Amino acid sequence: MARSSYLFTSESVSEGHPDKVCDRISDEIVDLVFKEAKKAGMDAGAVRIACETLATTNRVIIAGEVRVPESLLKRGKDGKIVLDASGAPVVNPAKFKSAARKAIRAIGYEQSGFHWKTCRIDVLLHGQSADIAVGVDEAGNKDVGAGDQGIMFGYAARETPELLPAPIYYAHKILETLTDARKANNGPAGKLGPDAKSQVTVQYQDGKPVGVTQIVLSTQHLDETLTSADVRKIVEPYIRQALPEGWISDDTVWHVNPTGKFVVGGPDGDAGLTGRKIIVDTYGGAAPHGGGAFSGKDPTKVDRSAAYAARYLAKNVVAAGLADRATIQLSYAIGVAKPLSIYVDLHGTGKVDEAVLEKALAEVMDLTPRGIRTHLDLNKPIYAKTSAYGHFGRKAGRDGSFSWEKTDLIKALKAAVA
Fold first, then answer.
1. What percent of the chain has pLDDT over 90?
2. Of residues 11, 15, 52, 281, which has the active-site annotation?
3. Is 353 one of the catalytic residues?
4. Which of 172, 221, 276, 375 is catalytic?
5. pLDDT band at 366 (very low <50, low <70, confident <90, very high)
6. Does the annotation mark 402 as catalytic?
7. Which pLDDT band, with edges at 50, 70 and 90, does 17 fall under?
8. Cα 127 to Cα 148: distance, rounded to the nearest angstrom
9. 96 is catalytic
10. DSSP 3-state assignment of 295?
């Protein structure tokens, strides 16, 4: 029997965290390629990107495999596309560097050790492996295969308005609130820097979140004279604003900048890499994660698209009233279109048989990679905004972003299990 009263902790990191800087740059490049493909009349389904970013003191390195429109390729003085020694077209680094600088500037880095204008950016992108391409490109009437093998998990729980676990939802919300205040130069919040981490310990009673027992916040500050107590005075009103009324009590323990000063932040203080915050990106440890990162990947990579599909299905299951909690696993093999398995766990809260629901999920949504991309409309530049504050529990946007957060499968799901 599941425990009903317990403590659970999740953490989040801000968009200025070194790893998140890298996630942002990688996803800005995904968006750049989709935008350029549209301009060039290139089939968006032919776009391929697997982009990794490394950031350290005044240095950014962008590497990976891409298939891009000709507008992003390098041309010689004769106007012809430049080829490397293997005969593959060479990527023009200019627009990729520009995308990276714009991302760093938007985050807010203008410090001596990491500045959007002066940091060195190296672009080491090259063409996609032909051995991978053959498994994921369309050939006649053949279904498009998965871009890799793997397992993907989706989760939803009736704990927050967006059906996300409360600890990760509010850890994100704290940092989003502080970031908005910092960028608005809202009084003392303007003294904060881009790099920050939050952590909340949520108390559950009878299986429901009722308050926080511990709050941890470490945030960069630009004024070197600020003490931990000074920083707490700045951030506490925003943290209280982010959390539900009554969740903070006199017994709540605060840890604000517990090591003291935090002036040097971002990639100048610690190197960053794409894909190192997968628990922050998903469910804060409250549910399984398949292991594959999301950022920097086009939606033929099921690490990303199938994880979005699994979340979409889980959220619709809970929103339809079929369960209060739902975990869904999908599995794929490279070059194979249909999922190898669909697994559902309703954690004892289900109103329907899990085996029946597993069959229903395959009926209400085409779970092939192409089916997922079509259903969720993923072949478009919607990814930069996913790179911080979680890929889940966000509002679906008019531009098609966060389409996997919609609850438009409720009617179909109820009919399928009736």
1. 83
2. 52
3. no
4. 276
5. very high
6. no
7. very high
8. 17
9. no
10. coil
Would you state the structure tokens that stand for residue 235, as one six-digit string? 């951030």
Active site residue 277: yes
Residue 106 makes CB contacts below 8 A (sequence gap 6+) with 24
Identified catalytic residue from 35, 38, 63, 65: 65
pLDDT for res 141: 40
Q: Which of 297, 370, 373, 391 is catalytic?
A: 297
Q: What is the pLDDT of residue 323?
A: 98
208 catalytic? Reply is no
Alpha-carbon distances, residue 258 vs 34, 176, 181, 195, 217 (angstroms): 43, 21, 22, 15, 8
Residue 17 is among the residues annotated as catalytic for this protein: yes
Question: Is the confidence at residue 393, as pLDDT, over 70?
Answer: yes
Mean pLDDT across 103-112: 96
Asked about 245 being catalytic, the answer comes back as no
Tell me if residue 157 falls in helix, strand or coil: strand
Supply the DSSP string of 53-76, one letter for each residue: EEEETTEEEEEEEEE--GGGB-B-
261 as an active site residue: the answer is no
> 183 an active-site residue?
no
CB 396 within 8 A of CB 405: yes
Instruction: Report how far apart the first and last C-alpha atoms of the chain are (Å, whole number).
Output: 28
- Of the candidates 8, 11, 15, 17, the residue annotated as catalytic is 17
